[in-house]
Amino acid sequence: MKTSILALLAAAAVGVLAQVEIPAGVPRSLEEFREKHQYKSRKSCTRKTVRIRSSQNATDDISDAFLQGLKEANHGGTLYLPKGHTYMIGKPLDLTFLNDVHVQLDGTIRFTNDTPYWQANAYRHPFQNSIMFWKWGGKDIKIHGTGVLDGNGQRWWNEFAGLEILDPTNAYLRPVLFYAENATGLDIEGIHLKDSPCWTTFIVTSKDIAFRDVACTAESNNATALPKNTDFFDSLNVENVTVERAWVNIGDDCFSPKSNASGVHVDTMYCNGTHGASMGSIGQYAGEKSIIEDVLIENVWLLNGQHGARLKTWAGPDVGYGYINNVTFRNFWNANNEYAAFLDSCYFNINETTCAAYPSQVNITNVLFQNFTGYTSGKYGRAVARLTCSPNAVCENITLEDFHVTSPCGAPVVLCDGLTEDIGVPCVKAASVEGKAALKPACTTAMAALPEPTPW
Ligand SMILES: *[C@@H]1O[C@H](CO)[C@@H](O)[C@H](O)[C@H]1NC(C)=O
Ligand SMILES: *[C@@H]1O[C@H](CO)[C@@H](O)[C@H](O)[C@H]1NC(C)=O
Ligand SMILES: *[C@@H]1O[C@H](CO)[C@@H](O)[C@H](O)[C@H]1NC(C)=O
Ligand SMILES: *[C@@H]1O[C@H](CO)[C@@H](O)[C@H](O)[C@H]1NC(C)=O
Ligand SMILES: *[C@@H]1O[C@H](CO)[C@@H](O)[C@H](O)[C@H]1NC(C)=O
Ligand SMILES: *[C@@H]1O[C@H](CO)[C@@H](O)[C@H](O)[C@H]1NC(C)=O
Ligand SMILES: *[C@@H]1O[C@H](CO)[C@@H](O)[C@H](O)[C@H]1NC(C)=O
Ligand SMILES: *[C@@H]1O[C@H](CO)[C@@H](O)[C@H](O)[C@H]1NC(C)=O
Ligand SMILES: *[C@@H]1O[C@H](CO)[C@@H](O)[C@H](O)[C@H]1NC(C)=O
Ligand SMILES: *[C@@H]1O[C@H](CO)[C@@H](O)[C@H](O)[C@H]1NC(C)=O
Ligand SMILES: *[C@@H]1O[C@H](CO)[C@@H](O)[C@H](O)[C@H]1NC(C)=O
Fold first, then answer.
1. Which ligand has the minimum distance to the alpha carbon of residue 294?
2. Nearest 5°: CA angle at 269, between 265 and 275?
3. Best mutation site among 59, 85, 86, 110 for ligand 1 pocket (most ligand atoms within 8 Å of CB)
4. Verdict on whether the full-model pTM lies above 0.85
5. Catalytic site residue 75?
6. For atom 9 of ligand 9, which residue has the closest CA?
7. What's any GO biological process attached to this entry (predicted)?
């Protein structure tokens, strides 16, 4: 492993960070990630192998063959999609009948980019108006290999440019790349989830889910149409979720279980350009109860993004209620992010007056931010973390331990509002003299540099 140096050329109104070293052994690119966490495609000798024809060109839809192949491989077999072959999917597929099936994906599965067709024909889920190319479900499903699941997102991002997913009037819907519902035992290993039009994965009412050694990237070739809302992981109603070794370079949440998640463990995740490792958002829908519980997220490196460790709960006149309990964020390294730790009880897009009039009804208990290092972007001046509790909900045992994040603007400050207990480090209210002074300096750091040309 080469020594990784981040050159920070950056100018800052107050302070200048000269050079920051990425901790030894931390990969800076997908190539280095693959080198460090090696993954080999393993062919089973005991399972029946099914093959299907591959596509001849970009419009050669093999979805019927794919469906047939999965039916044949179901109950103990493997659908084998070898390297060097592309499988174009041009029709929605209902794959919820699976039971003990593997897909060895060493080639590429790619969706067609006929956006009007998909908008008219994709499956729908009411949560945030989601649409999906296909739906997977059943028991003991494993997708593994060194191949690519490609959402062909560029045209979707181009056409979506300027719109907002959470705008209730938005009518331009974009499909989720990988959707599963009612799955028990879903393993995704090795593959590269690439260029999703919208969320990369969305797992609903499922349990025993594992992602291992996966890469998730979304990169636009159009500077005015960035890949928006391409979250690596989203879920509703899930139990027992594991993520081990993920490389994520996308334009929204790196990892963000939503309503009803319990037993979640993430170990070793690298996130560039993301909105952070988030709990939620939850509490969006009026009258609906949502919970997130028993979560450990550890060994996370976050570069060039919005926030680091984050909890988001909705406030406003028509929202839901619930709780987030027992969440540990451990060993987080930040480079050029906004807040390294952020508890936001005023989600989404509402001003302080409305938030105060209609505070969040999501209780937050037993949350630990442990061993945080690195530096922020300076966007919020010297404020490196912000914890805002709702006056309408319980906020208990929220603690920062070994929290050593610095700011390019000077002495770091932690902001806390609505917390009655000691949080383990000194903190000040955002509206206090000290809080305002900490938020005031406007300084920036340079992009945390990655190798040129990048292998992404
Ligand atoms: C794409 O391949 C299919 C299947 O071989 C063929 O029928 C079709 O004509 C090809 N289309 C183009 C544009 O080459
Ligand atoms: C969920 O999957 C199980 C088998 O895994 C099946 O028996 C059940 O009918 C499915 N439920 C729904 C709502 O699809
Ligand atoms: C880039 O995105 C913009 C929308 O922001 C779109 O108008 C333009 O056509 C796109 N450029 C290309 C080359 O597709
Ligand atoms: C969690 O899921 C994994 C499969 O990903 C399974 O091996 C394990 O037994 C499950 N644990 C519990 C407590 O159900
Ligand atoms: C890392 O993320 C930043 C911010 O989104 C992006 O501008 C940059 O291109 C990414 N780096 C690489 C090597 O892709
Ligand atoms: C979450 O679970 C609660 C029950 O605790 C249920 O009422 C609610 O509908 C669930 N949320 C979703 C999105 O399914
Ligand atoms: C908190 O969550 C972690 C991670 O899931 C779990 O191991 C632990 O048992 C939970 N603690 C309590 C008190 O339930
Ligand atoms: C939030 O905490 C309050 C006070 O302990 C409790 O009455 C309420 O039921 C809790 N809400 C939920 C959804 O657990
Ligand atoms: C703290 O986290 C860093 C990575 O962010 C890790 O290298 C270090 O070993 C951790 N310290 C402890 C005591 O676990
Ligand atoms: C806050 O938002 C509400 C609702 O959009 C609006 O009516 C109000 O004028 C805003 N208040 C301020 C101070 O911006
Ligand atoms: C506070 O929360 C942390 C993290 O969930 C937990 O380990 C600890 O036991 C809690 N402390 C108390 C007093 O409940």
1. 7
2. 100
3. 59
4. yes
5. no
6. 331
7. cell wall organization
- How far is Cα 338 from Cα 376, in angstroms, rounded to an integer? 5
Task: Specify the CATH number for the domain of residue 427.
Answer: 2.160.20.10
Q: Are 145 and 106 in contact (CB under 8 A)?
A: yes
Q: Ligand 4 center to residue 240 CA distance, Å? A: 6
- What spacing in Å lies between the alpha carbon of 331 and ligand 9's midpoint? 5
Q: What share of the chain is helix, strand, coil (3-state, %, to 5)?
A: 10, 45, 40
11 pLDDT more than 70: no
pLDDT digits 0-9 by tens, 208-267 = 999 999 999 999 999 999 999 999 999 999 999 999 999 999 999 999 999 999 999 999
Determine the atom of ligand 4 nearest the C-alpha atom of 187.
5
Q: Is the peptide bond before 281 cis (omega within 30 degrees of 0)?
A: yes
- Residue 372 falls within a domain, yes or no? yes
Nearest alpha-carbon partner for 441 in 18, 17, 10, 15: 15
Q: Whose CA is nearest to atom 2 of ligand 9?
A: 331
Mean pLDDT calculated for residue range 161-186 = 96
> Residue 196: inside a domain, yes or no?
yes
- Mean pLDDT in residue range 93-110: 98
Q: How far apart are CA 445 and CA 304, in angstroms?
A: 10
Number of domains in the chain: 1
Report yes or no on 256 lying in a domain: yes
Domain range spanning residue 262? 5-439
